[in-house]
Please model this.
Amino acid sequence: MASDSNPAFEDTLRAPVWCSARYNLAILAFFGFFIVYALRVNLSVALVDMVDSNTTLEDNRTSKACPEHSAPIKVHHNQTGKKYQWDAETQGWILGSFFYGYIITQIPGGYVASKIGGKMLLGFGILGTAVLTLFTPIAADLGVGPLIVLRALEGLGEGVTFPAMHAMWSSWAPPLERSKLLSISYAGAQLGTVISLPLSGIICYYMNWTYVFYFFGTIGIFWFLLWIWLVSDTPQKHKRISHYEKEYILSSLRNQNGLLSSLPYLGSWLCMILSGQAADNLRAKWNFSTLCVRRIFSLIGMIGPAVFLVAAGFIGCDYSLAVAFLTISTTLGGFCSSGFSINHLDIAPSYAGILLGITNTFATIPGMVGPVIAKSLTPDNTVGEWQTVFYIAAAINVFGAIFFTLFAKGEVQNWALNDHHGHRH
Model:
């Protein structure tokens, strides 16, 4: 039976990164989550062009606190897309409907991924969302109801993506590379938001809003073909992985015996990449414990944003400073990608997909109720009202940071020990 001192095992520790199957998986996953978020947020921009501006103006209040920024800016551009008479409440239902589907498949997605593997589940989840996106103009033309149903179905497809990817990483990510690999793959979500928001605006400007959905839907289908062709659920099933790398991944997982491991969004994306590198270096080179690293990065990623959110409420109408504070707040949130976001794999690698489904289900709730609560708390759009919103958001962050710090674990739990990757009962 091979041991850690075996020369062959030592050689596997030097498995190259360049052109490796595990980093190819991370890059493909990166683009997958790029598309996931592009498909999710493109409606936010296109909806502005879909709605008759006269209907929207009737619903909007003009803020007296900062009046020079209250009135919408009129921009002359392509107007060939069909317009709809949807008031603000209707638009809110349309935008929120995605999350009503998204929340349903979180836990089932984790369960199914643990049984059949994450490759097909994630692939078809994104493919289904992409295909449905192509039908968005038709659904909009049929009426509000069909469009809400279509968006909810898109949410069903995307709800399985994070649990499925987590399940795959439980088979692919060596413990001392886990933060880097997961940070690379999930960072695509942040960049997808950064790129798709302005790109959707450009498409609306020069063409019309229907092409936003045609463009991103087509990109999603193309990604699916690459994913099915190049990716495998496990190293054992991969047809092009080198024997050298396969043994490195399998040996590192087999021999753990318990220790596993727009502008604001651009900042968060960069922070996720850098924090992933830093987290793995702290563990590999400085011998920080897994639990210590997770606590540090979670505290920074939750307390930091809370501080700058509260500060943003006291800057009045200084818009440059507001953008700076909110950018810093969102950027610091990227530290969480190497904190609690990866902790599922530390405590229960065999059930990582299911656990992420459970936690992401609860994480979806703010996306559903947040806009409604914020709207009810800011009826007059005053600075004081927005201070209250920021206080609530900051308090939730602080509570989460304290709770995680007190109760988090860094090692595989007894209830999660099984034969998966050689973990012992």
User: Anything to note?
Assistant: The two ends are 18 Å apart (CA to CA). Confidence is low (pLDDT under 50) at residues 1-13, 70-76, 419-425.
